[in-house]
Amino acid sequence: MKKIALLLSGGVDSSVSLALLKNQGFDVTAFYLKIWLEDELSFLGNCPWGEDLKYVQAICRQFNVPLEIINFQTIYQEKIISYVIKEVKEGRTPNPDVLCNKHIKFGAFLDAIGNNFDKIASGHYAQVVENNQKYFLQCAPDPIKDQTYFLSQLSQEQLARLLCPIGQLTKKEVREHAKNFNLPSKNRPDSQGICFLGKIKFKDFLKIHLGIQKGDLVEIETGKKMGEHDGYWFYTIGQRQGIKLGQGPWFVVKKDVENNIIFISKSYYEDDKKRTDFFVTNLNLISDFFADEKIHVKLRHGAQKHEALLAKINEDTYHVRLSYNDQGIAAGQFAVFYQGNYCLGGGIIE
C-alpha cells in the first residue's frame, strides 16, 4: 500500500482529495503547513489559522487520518516574503504562489518528509502524466480552475512525487463529491488571493512592510499631474482599480520607481499602444516543445491563453511575441507556456 503525505488546508479541494485517497485504500497522513507571519498576525489581532485547523481536524477525525502540523514560518519569510518585498520595491509584479509551490509545498516539505512517503498529494487542479520515466504536467478539464500556471516551476524530481487526486475533475464535480462524502468543508467558500495572506488584503500586506509614501499620478500623454497616490508599490501595469480619478477609466501604463511616479492613461486600448512583445528569463522547461503544435502562453492564472512565437536569444533569455495585445504585460510576473493540453513550463517576464 502506497503511503501518501497529503497537504491539507481545510478547503474543499484538499478535503475531497483526502476522501478520494482514503476511498481508494491509500495509507494517508495529513499535513498542515503554518506559514503565517508575525507582522500579519498582529495586524489581524487574532489567530488566523484557527478556522482552518477546525476543518482540518474535523476531516481527519472523520476518516481516521493522522495529522501533523509543520511550522514553515521562518523558511517562508526567507524564500517567499523577502522575494515579494524585493520585487515590489523594484517596481515589479511578483507571484508568490508560483514560488510557494516550488520552494515550500514541494521543496521544503519534500525535504522534511524525505523518503518516508511515496507521494505528496495536494488539492491542485492539474494532472501529472508519466511516460518513459519522464513526467508531464497536463491541464485539468476545468479551464478556469486549472492550476498548472502555479505549478510551472516544478522540476522533474518534484513532479515525480506529486499526486493530484482531483486533477481530472471540474469544480462542480469536486463540490458534488464533498456533499456525497458529507465533508465538514462541503459548503466552505473557495479561498481567494495569495497563499500566505488569507484574510489580509495584499494592499494591507504591502502597507505593513512598505508603509505609505505620497507620489504623483501623471497622465503619460501630457505630463500633467492628475492626482496623488500612496506609493508605487500598490500598483501594477494594466491596473484599473484603485486610481480613484474622475473622467476615466484610467489605467496604469508605467512606473517611475526612483521618483515614485505612476503614469496613467485613458487611451490604454488604442491601436498605437502595442503590447505584444516581451522577454522571458529563468525559463523552467518541464518538457520540450513539440515541433508540430502551436505555442500558447498565459501571463496570469485563468483561462485566457495567447498564441505566441518564442525565439531563443541566448541561454537565459527568450523573446516572446503575442498574437494580439495583452492589457498587462508586467515585469516580474510569470509567463507560462502551453502546447495542446500540456504545460511546458515558464519563466519570468523582464
Structure keywords:
8 helices; six-stranded antiparallel β-barrel; Elongation Factor Tu (Ef-tu), domain 3; alpha/beta; Rossmann fold; five-stranded parallel beta sheet; globular; 350 residues; SH3 type barrels
How many helices? 8
Terminal-residue CA separation = 46 Å
Q: List the helices and strands in order.
A: EHEHHEHHEEEHEHHEEEEEEEEEE
Structural class of the secondary elements?
Answer: alpha/beta
- Provide the gyration radius in Å: 21 Å
**Strand share of the residues?**
25-35%
Task: Describe this structure as you would to a colleague.
- It is a single chain.
- By secondary structure, this protein is of the alpha/beta class.
- It has three domains: 3-123 and 165-180, Rossmann fold (3-Layer(aba) Sandwich); 212-265, SH3 type barrels; 277-349, Translation factors (Elongation Factor Tu (Ef-tu), domain 3).
- The protein contains eight helices and 17 strands.
- It has helices at 12-23, 38-44, 49-62, 73-89, 96-113, 156-161, 171-180, 202-210; strands at 3-7, 27-34, 67-71, 119-121, 126-131, 134-139, 162-163, 215-219, 225-229, 251-256, 261-265, 277-285, 295-298, 306-314, 317-322, 334-339, 342-349.
- Strands 12-15-14-13-16-17 form a six-stranded antiparallel barrel.
- A hairpin with a 5-residue loop joins strand 8 (215-219) and strand 9 (225-229).
- Helix 1 crosses helix 7 (171-180).
- It is globular and about 70 Å long.
- The N and C termini lie far apart (46 Å).
